[in-house]
Design brief:
- The protein has about 300 residues and is α/β, with parallel strands linked by helices.
- It has a single domain (about 10-290), classed as Rossmann fold (3-Layer(aba) Sandwich), CATH 3.40.50.1220.
- Helices cover about 35% and strands about 15% of the residues.
- It has helices at about 15-20, 55-60, 65-80, 90-100, 115, 145-155, 155-160, 220-230, 245-255, 280-290; strands spanning about 10, 25-30, 100-105, 120-125, 125-135, 140, 205-210, 235, 260-265, 275-280.
- Strands 1-10-9-8-2-3-4 form a seven-stranded parallel beta sheet, sandwiched between helices. A three-stranded antiparallel beta sheet has the order 6-5-7.
- The longest helix is centred in the N-terminal third of the chain and has 19 residues, at about 65-80.
- The two termini are about 40 Å apart.
- Mean pLDDT is about 90; it is low at about 1-5, about 165-170 and about 170-175.
């Protein structure tokens, strides 16, 4: 059986090493939850993160109690993510794109903070928290519209479960860690039924987010591969690379002979394919790269 040629072990580098390796190269950035921690959104697998067990797609679609529990928690957590703001790392990647250094961002996050910071070429690999989709008729709704309906169905729920949203622990997918959800009422799809337009569809509404156990849409994956292929190097920022959906791009870049730099607080599953690794936060390093990496012509 043939195998890929062995790649030298990654080197624990410094900021100077990163600049020396990446200067003059066009980059694709692959980002994870660690990029958003400085915006007040905790990550899943960082050194200081509590254990989390995200709901799977199978649980969500197969059990009404799971769906009720999820929507109750999301009804609280969504408000927190909606009020977060980009940090220095998000702004730095947008500035690097403006300077022609970063071609685009493939993000595993669903918080839309890259777009809010001004990044224009963003692939939201795992979807986005601000939309919901009906699993039956595929109607897409703004999350803010659903929030109004859930509030009407469950008046005062947020106040009953914990008062201020800031007092409730929020997960990266806008899930809030609360327990009292048995009396929460869930909204079904209210679009016209595709088989009888005189009545509402009634289908299951799901956040437009890729759940554990669910596949990233193939078209989105292909666009991400193309973005990696178009770059001279891959910069991973704030991801443990624990799941295949992000790790595959690291392997792909390494197998193509492209330099891979991984910046994360702690080791990652992709370190074996990296050229350089830095165990540090992302905000300060990305901000430093804005002034240290030379601008490149954007039409080259």
């Amino acid at each position: 059986m043939s195998t890929s040629p062995a790649r030298p072990a990654a080197v624990r580098g410094t900021l100077d090493d990163v600049v020396a390796l990446l200067a003059g190269r066009r980059l694709t950035a692959l980002t994870g939850a660690g990029v958003s921690t400085d915006s007040g959104i905790p990550d899943y697998r960082g050194p200081d993160s509590p254990p989390r067990t995200p709901m799977t797609f199978q649980q969500f679609v197969g059990d009404e109690a799971f769906r009720r529990h999820y929507w109750a928690r999301n009804h609280v957590g969504w408000r927190h993510v909606h009020e977060t703001h980009p940090n220095a790392g998000h702004r730095a990647l947008a500035a690097l794109e403006e300077r022609g250094v970063v071609l685009g961002v493939v993000t595993q996050n669903v918080d839309l903070l890259h777009e809010a910071a001004g990044s224009r070429n963003v692939i939201d690999l795992h979807g986005r928290y601000d939309r919901v989709v009906c699993l039956r008729c595929r109607t897409v709704y703004p999350r803010a519209v659903l929030a109004e309906r859930l509030e009407a169905l469950n008046p005062g729920f947020v106040e009953r479960v914990g008062g201020e949203v800031g007092d409730v622990e929020i997960a990266p997918d806008a899930d809030a860690v609360i327990e009292r959800t048995a009396d929460f009422r869930v909204q079904a799809c209210w679009a016209p039924d595709p088989d009888d337009r005189s009545r509402p569809c009634g289908g299951i509404l799901k956040p437009d987010i890729v759940y554990f156990g669910e596949n990233v849409p193939r078209e989105r994956v292909e666009r991400a591969y193309a973005m990696v292929d178009a770059a001279d190097a891959l910069l991973v920022a704030g991801s443990s690379l624990s799941v295949q959906s992000g790790l595959r791009f690291v392997r792909h870049a390494a197998q193509a002979g492209k330099p891979v730099v991984v910046v994360n607080r702690g080791e990652t599953r992709g370190d074996r394919w990296a050229t350089l690794t830095l165990h540090t936060g992302t905000s300060e390093l990305l901000a430093a790269l804005v002034s240290l990496l030379p601008a490149l012509p954007r039409d080259a």
